[in-house]
Write a structure and sequence with these properties.
Blueprint: H1 3-6, E1 8-13, E2 21-25, E3 29-33, H2 40-57, E4 74-76, E5 81-84, H3 97-100, H4 104-114, E6 116-117, E7 126-127, H5 131-141, E8 147-158, H6 162-172, E9 177-179, E10 182-183, E11 194-204, H7 210-222, E12 227-232, E13 235-240, E14 244-245, E15 270-271, H8 277-281, H9 285-293, H10 302-317, H11 334-348, E16 354-358, H12 366-376, E17 383-386, H13 390-394, E18 398-403, E19 412-417, H14 419-424, H15 428-433, E20 453-459, E21 467-472, E22 476-480, H16 487-501, E23 509-511, E24 517-520, H17 533-537, H18 539-551, E25 575-580, E26 583-589, H19 600-603, E27 607-608, E28 614-615, H20 617-621, H21 625-628, H22 636-647, H23 664-677, E29 684-688, H24 699-711, E30 715-719, H25 723-727, E31 731-736, E32 745-746
Parallel strand pairs: 3-17, 3-18, 5-16, 16-17, 22-30, 22-31, 24-29, 29-30
Antiparallel strand pairs: 1-2, 1-4, 6-15, 7-14, 8-11, 8-12, 9-10, 9-11, 12-13, 18-19, 20-21, 20-23, 25-26, 27-28, 31-32
Amino acid sequence: MSAHKTGLRIEGATENNLRDVDVMLSEGISAVVGASGSGKSSLVFDTLYREARHRFLATLQGAQGAVRAARVRAVHGLRPAVAVGQNVLNRNPRSTVATAVGVHPFLRVIYARFAVLRCPRCGEATETTSAEEQLALLRTAAATTPVEVVAPLVRGALGTHDRLLAGLAERFGASCVTVDEAPWSGAPLDPGLPHTVEVRVGTLAPADDARAARALLDAVAALGSVQVRFRTATGLRVLSRAPLCTSCGAALPSVRPQDFRADGPETAGYELAGLTLPAFLRLDVSRARAALAGTALPPQADNASRHVLRRLDALDALGLGYLTLDRSSPTLSRGEAQRLRIAVLLANDVEDLLHILDEPTIGLDPDQVRRLLGELGRLAGPVVLVEHDRTAVAGAERVVEIGPEAGSGGGRVVFEGTPEELWRADTVSGRWFSGRERLVPPAGAAADGSGARLTVRQAEAHNLTGFDCAFPIGALTVVTGPSGAGKSTLVREVLVASLEAGEPRGCAALEGPAIRALTVDQSPIGVNPRSNPATYTGLADRIRAVLAAATGVPAGTFSFNRSEGACPTCAGMGSVEVKLRFLPSEWVPCEACGGRRFGADVLAVRAELADGATYSVDGIYDLSVREALPLFSHDGRARRIIQALLDVGLGYLRLGQPSPTLSGGEAQRVKLAKQLAATKPAQLVYLDEPSTGLHPADVPRLAALLRGLTDRGSTVVVVEHNQDIAAMADWTVRIGPGSGPDGGRLLH
């Protein structure tokens, strides 16, 4: 039996900390679990996805070598792969939900070709007929009686129109020309008056065939007229390929789909289900789907409509029905942005793809996780999840655990099998997922809310329903509820925004002391490879100072952000951007410095540090956080930063790891470490889903850190779905019961 039918087989994977790993993944949903930093992403992204991408790019002219092959002996049954990670965020403010999932182009087509246009002069609906419709109507009208076909050419325009009239008389005869609704006498027209000019191009008799009818319509079009008039014994009928008001006769210019890119006056009158396109985009996904599905459209619109409905269905199925189509992409949470990309996969329905997903359950409660798994099961091809969520792991067909610890203590397969078998296994994941080990909340942790507190009055931003909510000062408050219920709105856009502005934002009032707030979210700590944990936390300053003291070389020489220290080829990036046609750019290691960022003369400088060993500057950046601690035993500031990184569970992280490669959870914990290392912490610290990327076994350490912040006097407010974190809270706020307009209420 082929590997395609039996699953994916990885043999001899040695990326990063992996230790010659052999593993089998299923044809359905496989979950890769393990402690934070154990090597899960190294196996799934750095091995499986890298190898798939390498093989694909090797087939494209000019792209060979853009991605190196994975460090693996063999991968059997490998398909083309698509990966949805956490650290790919769209920060373009012009990007919206509608553009991100690809419904906007189809909506523009529907509005341009099939929407009802209301006349700006009288407000009545206009009519438009295609050339084929005009042909059918003309033949029907001429079935029993001759029909004169007239081309309107000038309507209410000043001038003599001498050249036009002469040309019409020469081609069709003066008797066929009508001026101001009367036969033209041949006399010159008064240039100071508005005139209307028409010409009869011919007559269609009942005996004439379709070719004769088409020739008459083509003659009208050749004259530049978008209108045609049929004159029969019973009256006159006006048809137009451009919008024509049947009430006042106003002719309006045609629009193209691209005209709907901007909200201009030329598109303002076009309506679908009684809504202009901007109004339609203000609907949430669920209501937009209902509006489009309930609108009668001609068969020609079926293809575009089907594409829109399929994408909206996918969004709704993934629990994103509360998002408005015009919601700006940068305002989405990391979990929402990730599920948006998963929705595109579901809607496209491409078969035989390998789907690689990094914690797609971020921000979802257990019911929403189960719904997500049902949708992932519809994908035509294997699905590999890097996961920490118990409900998601329980829904997988096969589970692989990498461990047993982080960094150099991990990189081995400690379990392969079904979720039921994992629950019985004596591994870190087996014990925590089965509940044999769990976080025990401290006794008497809950606050009664009677002390000092911040009180939000009439919170009403977005979907919030005008409730009052209290946050005890100096306590750990956890805000829970379904995805899209309004949790982040309450904390980020009301509480924190009001504190930062010094006046109410999204509420009637904020009562309590004026305190300094800090947001610790999952946004990247930097946008290019120069940024890393050492530069973000300030540890890089101490590295330069220690090296300068040990060598006598100026500290600036040890900075890859300055010309005297940086590699001249890559300017300190360590990587060079390779632009690919029709594909995202790839960053490949700089050939001049080998990815080490510094110039050759700087790399040659070595210093003996506190542990007695000698190091070059890039050698220090290549150390893990845990390995770096002994080097700075005599530097209090550096030691405090490193210890904070250890405390947040990032001991496995390299000091110089480029920030674009960090997951959202890792970036957030680097920010938290910077706050922990500060001599004066913020008075209020807001964290959004801090358990993201954490194995359940790592959650107690996070809980202890949050408790440590409150012990130092900070007020900590956490938006979180993890029930272990919620159980540690002094004060709990629950928003719900549903998402979007079905949420926004204070339940507890």
